[in-house]
Specification:
19% strand; 359 residues; Arc Repressor Mutant, subunit A; SH3 type barrels; 4-stranded antiparallel sheet; alpha+beta; 5-stranded antiparallel sheet
């Protein structure tokens, strides 16, 4: 069954043909070209050809569209050597003014797919409507073909985003019932400023009245939200465009930035070289596969380094090397410490000894 998408395809085929004065633009040929284009887009299209009635309706639509753009433009029907053929009265005229390039069409399609992740957020419906209008104006055909795929379709806490995003936009203080892992529930009044995603979990950053500081709250641990009548406290505390520059993740601690030197194995170095651990990553010795990053150490950095196992070793500073070594020792004890057939070497987990490769 023909669809609105089919109509857009026909309009574009006809519009392209009508731009030149050619006896090839006969009714029969134009109908055939339209049918072929639809079949290419929709393999399930069963109609043998575009009907004469549909063709005439399409020409009538293009006449109205052309006149709306330029009152002096008409669609001429002229008898050729054997049949009537059609063309715009102005050569090169098109109803698709400022037409997007194929590259721009692809970029737009990707952008709309990305925006599709944020359904439910304030203004999304307006953006979606704008996208629909642009698709119609530029003849972009909606299809089921995907251009972008996420590792996870939804991030934890995503369902709370519309309400919180509204509160941020409207500068609405909120009372939050929060359930930290392993601790009793707490109630805080938060002045919401910023939402950030990390490791498939959403976090809210805002001023915490009870603790008089910027708090970082995981959305999936928020049990209840309600607006309060407190006067909104504007964000004069941090610049979120640079707030996360010196960390990995979302945990910002009041500590100095530290230069951390790491050495990678030969097999892992190309991955770390091309996908940097942090924006500050630099070579220390390319031949020796050593790099450095300048960050504030936090639990997210610990987790990232440990995820590389024996493929990434901390060279300095010594205190951070010892910190990770202790975590590696705890991991060893989990897997081997309680086994009868395991006989760890002496001092294996002594942080005062030299490094031992346990992975």
């Amino acid at each position: 069954m023909p669809t609105n998408n089919h109509a857009v395809i026909r309009y574009r085929v006809l519009d392209k043909c009508l731009q030149k004065k050619s006896e090839d633009n006969t009714e029969q040929q134009l109908r055939k070209l339209c049918s072929n284009a639809i079949s290419e887009f929709d393999p399930n299209y069963e109609a043998a050809e575009v009907s004469l009635r549909t063709f005439r309706l399409d020409i009538a639509y293009l006449k109205r569209a052309a006149t709306a753009i330029d009152p002096d433009v008409e669609i001429i029907s002229r008898l050729g050597s054997s049949r009537y053929y059609y063309f715009y009265s102005k050569p090169g005229f098109s109803i698709y003014k400022n037409e997007l390039t194929s590259s721009e069409v692809g970029q737009f399609s990707c952008a709309m797919q990305l925006l599709g992740r944020f359904k439910g957020l304030p203004e999304y419906d307006g953006i979606a409507e704008l996208g629909s209008k642009l698709k119609k104006k530029y003849g972009i055909i909606a299809s089921e073909k995907a251009y972008v795929e996420y590792e996870h379709v939804e991030s934890v806490g995503e369902e709370a985003m519309p309400e919180i995003c509204n509160d941020i936009i409207n500068q609405q203080p909120i009372r939050i019932l929060y359930s930290p892992f392993g601790k009793p529930d707490v109630q805080w009044i938060i002045h919401p400023y910023f939402l950030k995603e990390y490791n498939n979990r959403w976090f809210l950053f805002g001023y915490n009245e009870e603790e008089s500081k910027i708090s970082n709250l995981a959305l999936d641990r928020i049990r209840d939200i309600e607006p309060v009548s407190n006067s909104f406290i504007p964000n004069t505390f941090v610049q979120f465009d640079s707030y996360f520059n010196n960390i990995i993740g979302v945990t910002v601690e009041d500590k100095p930035v530290v230069k951390i030197v790491l050495k990678a194995t030969g097999k892992r170095f190309p991955y770390i070289e091309t996908k940097k651990l942090h924006a500050s990553q630099k070579y220390e010795d390319f031949n020796d596969k050593t790099i450095s990053i300048s960050v504030i150490p936090n639990k997210e950095l610990d987790a990232l380094i440990l995820s590389f196992g024996a493929d990434l070793e901390i060279i300095s500073p010594e205190w951070y090397r010892d910190h990770i070594k202790a975590k590696a020792c705890s991991l060893y004890q989990v897997y081997f410490g309680g086994q009868e057939d395991c006989t760890p070497e002496p001092n294996l987990c002594d942080v005062n000894q030299g490094s031992t490769n346990i992975f």
